[in-house]
Amino acid sequence: xxxxxxxxxRLVSLAAHDLRTPLATIHGFAQTLVRMGDLGEPxxxxxEMIDAASRQLAELLDELGTAARIESGRxxxxxxxxxxLELAHAAAEQLGAERIRVSGIGTEVHVDPESxxxxxxxxxxxxxxxxxxxxxELRVDGQVLELSPVTASSAPVVLGEELRDLGAAVAVRVVRxxxxxxxxxGDTLTVTxxx
Length: 195
Fold this sequence. Notes:
Layout: H1 2-5, H2 8-36, H3 43-71, E1 80-83, H4 84-95, E2 100-106, E3 108-111, H5 113-131, E4 136-142, E5 144-148, H6 155-158, H7 166-177, E6 181-185, E7 188-192
Parallel strand pairs: 2-4
Antiparallel strand pairs: 1-3, 4-5, 5-7, 6-7
């Protein structure tokens, strides 16, 4: 048991957990200042930037914690029924609906909604960012989500094989840990979620 407690994934998980308290303080005070408003420019803009950055840091810590739990075999997802078309639309909204065209017919799957929604958005973001694209398509066919195009240069990043995008790497691990699959067929990334 001592070896498992001193593993690198456990260390990462502990660090992610311990960083949440100071981050929550920063985020809380930034939100308070944003709500107070009327700080005058440029102070108001700076406080809003601090608020947005603290939310991004919280999301990164969530990603690290999830990855560490998966790697150490301690991932215990909160499974809930979720429609795949709704999931695709929610992921698209995170990046802006103008960047991701969603189409198809969904079905109910049982997944950890927050992790999978964040993961699908991260996969699309990685395809956009590392592929030099302005737009991608996310087609839903039941429990299968097809993201395209995925360029040759972005494919290793989107698949989590080349570790240059934390969100994509964690997304692939989450889907696989849930019993789903992530595969590339030509320029289409196929994400199959468990029923």
